[in-house]
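step=predict obj=Phosphatidylethanolamine-binding protein n=418
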Amino acid sequence: RRPHISTDKPKKWNRPIAEGVLPAYDEALKIITRDSEDLTKEAKELGKKIDALETEAEEAKDDTEKFHEILKELEALRERYHILSVQSQINMPSVRWTVANAQLDPWSPAHLHLAEQRWRGEGGLDILMERLHQMHVVPDLLPGIHPSLDLHVTVPYPLNKQFKRSMKSGGKSIVGVEPGSFLSPTQTARAPGLWAHAWHSDVRLYTMVMLDPDVPDQETRSFTTYVHWMKPNIPVSAVAEPRAFISPALLNSHTTYVPPHPQQGTPYHRYTILLLPQPPKTIYSRNLQILLKQSTTTHADLSISSPTSWPLPLLKKYTTSQWLDIPIVSDSQRRGFNLRKFVREWGTQVNGGKGLDSEKNHAIVVGGGVHMFREVWDETVSGVFKTSVAKGGKIEEKYTLPKKVDRYEGLKGVRKYI
């Protein structure tokens, strides 16, 4: 049996065949290695130019015009340096094997590029977008969503015989949720686990919102939305530890979690979780990323790998996104929450490095993450409602679907052929 490989139990790449067995493979490996060495050499030369320009920028701080010209040149050089760092590594079999076997180094631009490429090219993003459009989350909630990070959701296994047998045999107690799949209300009685796989090394802020767009509205004889969960100013980075996990205590420190409780007699509900990107302080750039990274290293009490533990003043200072003082959504305001209006008001979208422009893009969210799952009413919803939702004498809503007219009812029992 193949041993488990991870960052905790790493394993080095080995050639699939010995040298000399297949000369064509040996020659191809030499060409790839030579190309990598040439690009690495070019990147080192570029790094020296960047160091010299940084010194020049320090000396020109008093001359505003010259300083901005140097910063512009530095941005172009750093972008080129980033491209060379990726190109010099991504074709190496050892690097590709390392990323494919869950040994990703978050500080390596090549590793992050390959991981993002894998998400975009091997079906993860395709399945997500297919479900969002197939089930009309787009445009029912937002007119457009273009994710830039991979949001994972985990919940407990359903409480059934198969789960009990699995637990007895040492099986895991949580399961990853595929976008669009059905969950039971007992699985979401407690807040699900959120894992945000980002591809940027700087620390950016996101606003998490969980909504149900399928709550019956008797007045309009249609449906309205309900906010189950909200938390702004969540710091996310590719180098966060533990890898990409968002603490439940952090998520529940704003608008607290209300478990899904689909109403009896209604079709399935599409519970959607969004990580909305908060606008940048100025514009996302290589210069800003390097500046904040250098600034955080000067503080002994700051670790870029655990931004959730930063003190509030430093979190506001050393993140590349704007801090948003979004008010808590009260219980009376949860029902009828207008997500499009919220996006327009707070600018929780990124479009070419700029803030919100509602007249042009109409609240199309570019960036961030999204996930969705479905639930239908069952006999356990009443228990979830009583323990977590029923406050101030609230009564669980129940609906009856109108009887369908059977056009052939008069023909039933009549002989068709004589």
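step=describe
The CA atoms of residues 343 and 363 lie 6 Å apart.
step=end
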